[in-house]
Design a protein that fits this description.
Length: 461
Amino acid sequence: MGSPAAEHAAALAEEMSDAHFGDARLSKRQTKLVQKLAQAPDKSFPSLLSDSELEAAYRFFGNDAVTPAAILAPHVRATLARMEAEPVVLAIHDTTTLSFRSDGQRQGLGRLRSSGQTFFAHFTLAVSGDGTRRPLGVLDLSTHVRDDGTTDNEHDRWGEQVERVAVLGAAPHDVVHVMDREGDDYGLFAQLLSAGHRFVIRLAHNRLVEADALGAEAKLEQALAHVQAVAVREVALSPRPAGNRSPQQKRLHPPRAGRLAKLALGSTRVTLRRPRSQPRELPATLSLRVVRVWEIEPPPGEAPVEWVLLTSEPVESVEQLTQLVDWYRARWMVEELFKALKTGCAYEKRQIEDLHGLRNVLALFAPIAWQLLLLRSEARRAPEQPATAVLTPTQLEVLRVFARKPLPENATARDAFLAIAGLGGHLRRNGEPGWQTLGRGYEQLLTLVQGWSAAREVGKI
């Protein structure tokens, strides 16, 4: 696997240059757009592009021959190549809502409550399963619109995305599919088991299970009540502010303060009964393992953390049990990808007039958001590794000259990360940098590198 230095703007443009639209001019246009946008991911198109470039960009996004799949295909191929060096890869699935203000009617989008428009994007992010949680790239992306506010058949999309990932050629025994509560669907469980896929899914429903060998029915929570803790771990829970999230999101994920939680882990095997609402073509029962994770002694006034995880994986040992819980916890990487997309890349501020164009813009920004995620996660994961692990020699040279505070001689990845955020306006006394300041700082660094390289070519440096 290459060093993270290879993941910056020039390399990303090269990675994305192998798109096939049936017209070489469109492939060249995509490469030029990626080069521009990767250097300034949070800037608007008009402020970043010249008039002629802006017109060409709008034509590109609106071209019927240009599709999200074609745009993303080169990045997917590069992601698969990065996966080859990993013994286990987590394919993390999740859906995000993309919302746009009602400052213009965009064709093909759904309505968002009383005002605004929206559509939904379902991502599959590949993440290393070795405990480092290194983001490897986006494997799949699909979108849909709720025309009437219903969610019928949305569970089908989860299974469809799993099968598209399988078709890419990744070995099923090397990929573990990870999903949150939206993936709790009996038909999906049956599909995954039938195809031999590995998975970890957090349950949302108190499902029917067989209570004994005679097939008597019981509820899952009754079976879990007898699960004994075989391990206890301390886990740092991040704060969850109320923000402007929807009532449904606040109900599913209540606001909380950050804290160090003591979690108990235990497991059991259950036989799920097919819900009466499900087609009779599905198996009448499914035998699976369930892992229960629950908080011991939560702070007064705070709801205790509890996760119920359904899995195909063996959990006979403490090591297997803790690894499985860590795989589920890696799911938060896809939420960080969404933040990089929405804040670091300012995707929801893009002035594109129809769904076709917005879907194409989304596919172009997805690898850029991954690039920002990689930069931040590597600086956090191994802060003491040399700065050269996350920056090219030229980038580090330029950062030494223009950083607000002098970099140490043996600068670390953490030093470089904070210096880049400082270029974007971040002050160290304000805590960890956010996606917006990181995006701006990264943009500023790449702009300075361009000028530095140009000056060097003419002999002024």
